[in-house]
Amino acid sequence: RLNTVVFSTPDPKGCGGTWADVYLMGNFSSSAQFFVTLAALVFLYCITALVVYIGYSHVYQQNNKFPLTDLTISILTAFLWLVSTFFWAKALAGIKGSTGASIISGIKSCKAPGTTCHFVSVTSMGILNMSVV
Predict the structure, then answer these.
(1) Which is nearest to 15 in space by CA: 117, 85, 84, 95?
(2) Is 23 exposed, middle or buried (0-12, 13-18, 19+ CB in 10 A)?
(3) Taking a C-beta distance cutoff of 8 angstroms, is the pair 85, 132 a contact?
(4) C-beta atoms surrounding 16 within 10 Å
(5) Which of 47, 44, 68, 67 is nearest to 57 (CA)?
(6) pTM above 0.85, yes or no
(7) How far apart, in whole angstroms, are the C-alpha atoms of residue 30 and residue 12?
(8) pLDDT tens across 11-65, in order?
(9) Buried b (16+ CB within 10 A) or exposed e, 70-89
(10) Residues 54-78: tens digit of each pLDDT
(11) In 3D, which of 97, 80, 93, 85 has the Cα closest to residue 132?
């Protein structure tokens, strides 16, 4: 929910007193929520399947519906995991674009004559990149 993040000046006299609050563009929360929710559901399914495999292996082996159901759920999960990863990768690209150096050119106060805007620090996106990989 980058659209709720506001940049305000710590110094009201900065930028010649022309600074107006700036909001980032983009709301990428739905992609992240889908990715994390699917991960939590897959984790719960894996725990349930492990209990069935270990504790009720005789029922699993005697009933033909359990293996077929397990295969169907596994295929559906793999497909949804792939889709959620694509959505998260697209959202991550959007996050990088919304928080990159290109946003400076869109800030009105930075276009004032004699004003120079720059980032004080740049946050690494390595952990987010790894989440997609």
Answers:
(1) 117
(2) exposed
(3) yes
(4) 11
(5) 67
(6) no
(7) 35
(8) 666 666 667 777 777 788 888 888 889 999 999 999 998 998 898 888 778 888 8
(9) eeeeeeeeeeeeeebeebbb
(10) 988 887 788 888 888 889 999 999 9
(11) 85
